[in-house]
Structure formats: C-alpha cells, structure tokens
C-alpha cells in the first residue's frame, strides 16, 4: 500500500482508507456486521480506517482491531492508521479533550493517528431529527476549538489533527490562528488517486473490498483523463443535505 507523508503528523497515511459508515440493513446487527467486515478488510490488506463518533463504528472497529491482533493478522496496533472525528455537539473548547478520550475508550486505543473536526459548525443539543432545527446550529469558535484539537495532539491522544468539510475560507480563518496547521481536510468529493489525493472507499463486500485496493498496478490513459475532466463535477454530499437548508448552512455550502 502506497503511503503519503503529512505535515505535523509523524506517521504516513496509507493512500487508500476503508470507510465505516453503515447504511442500516433490516434484520442485521450493525455492530456485528461492521466488526466482521472490518476484520475482513484487515485480512484484505487495508491498514487505514476512517471512523467518527457519529458513525457508531468506533466500538466495532476497536473490537475488530483486538481480534486482528489476537489472530496475528497484525503484530501491533502501530501498523494501522486510524482516523476519527469530533462530532458537532462536542465542538467547544472545554469539551474536545473529553470527546477525544471518549472515542479512544470506544476504540480501545491509547491514541488515534488523526483527529478531525467533522464539520465547521457547532450543534448545542443531541440531534434527534433531520433536518436539524436551525435554533440548535451555531457558528464554530474556530480559535477555541482548534486550541482544543492542539491540546489533544500535545497530550499524545492523536498523532495528527485536521478538519473535514472545511471551505478554503474556513481553512484561511483557521490558519490565521493555528499554532499547529491542519494536516488534512477530508471532503466528500469523488477525487481520484491520480490527482495525489488520499481516498476513503467503503465496501463491506469481500470481493469489492479487494477490487477497491487494485488501483496501483495500472493507470488511466491521457484520453481517459481528458474525458473524466469534462464530466460535470458535483459535491458527493452537501452540508444542507445533512443539517437542512438553513441560511447559515447554505452559506457554508456556498463558500469555496
Ligand atoms: N468527513 C465526512 O463528512 C464524510 C462524508 C462522507 C463519507 N465519509 C467517509 O468516506 C467513506 C465512503 O463514503 P462514500 O460516500 O464514498 O461511500 P458510501 O456511500 O458510504 O458507500 C459506498 C457504496 O458503494 C458500494 N461499493 C463500494 N465499492 C464498490 C465497488 N467496487 N463496486 C460497486 N459498488 C461498490 C458500497 O456497497 P457495499 O458495501 O455493498 O460494497 C456502498 O454502498 C464513508 O464510509 C466515511 O468513512 C466522510
């Protein structure tokens, strides 16, 4: 697996990661389904996993790692690159270290390799329905929240820190206050490996899992690349699709 060196993160990130969002299937125990699929992914050669507090996949991923160690599929947890994310309800200066420790408890790990701010906004109550009521959505205190993220890194709870779904404008705001610049901005765009971008794929199907790893021994022709570049580009996911079409959220989607 090829790896990419990041700034402010001691460990290189494998170029392909396994996503852990599970669309619910009737009758299946999501936790058990996920644990066995993630174990299968480790067997297939995945070493980079993308989880988040809100995906409810931290616990099954932690259990899959324990079992992989037990079965000898990996010798040490250090062989894995684990990313998790700070959920919007914890996006306040005084809650970030606690939220990171909560994720580590679920994952049964002493540290993660990357901790990301999941979205550039704060929600001040547990989300009970969609779209999220606009009264509970607030602007992010970027300076305070980033200080909390930096504290997580300084405490050794994570090797690297970064953001997700941030516009260029939000990144600029962040860079103007950051002591440690973000190592990653994870966005849900269909970017491709040949553009030098790390991709997170998700399949819990054994064959498709293997198929998604087989991108290193071939390349697209110039003609293919030109055709692809002509395709209309769309965001794979918008903030409004998750939080609702409120003015504040639409503004975040409109920012570049
Ligand atoms: N930071 C963020 O806000 C954010 C947002 C979106 C996603 N993500 C991360 O990115 C991951 C991937 O998200 P996504 O939106 O790209 O994918 P997705 O919609 O979660 O899942 C991909 C779908 O494609 C199918 N699939 C995968 N490989 C395939 C193949 N080779 N052939 C045919 N079908 C295939 C999978 O089904 P099977 O499982 O049945 O194969 C699955 O239904 C997530 O799990 C999450 O970790 C992060």
UniProtKB/TrEMBL annotation:
Annotated positions for site Lowers pKa of active site Tyr: 85
GO molecular function: aldose reductase (NADPH) activity
Residues annotated as the enzyme's active site: 55
A cellular component annotation (GO) from this entry: cytosol
The NADP-dependent oxidoreductase domain, residue ranges: 16-187
Domain of life: Eukaryota
Alphabetized Pfam families for the sequence: Aldo_ket_red
InterPro entries xrefs: AKR (IPR020471), Aldo/ket_reductase_CS (IPR018170), NAD(P)_OxRdtase_dom_sf (IPR036812), NADP_OxRdtase_dom (IPR023210)
Binding site for substrate: 118
PANTHER family, per the entry: ALDO/KETO REDUCTASE
Protein name in the entry: Galacturonic acid reductase
Organism whose genome encodes this protein: Solanum tuberosum
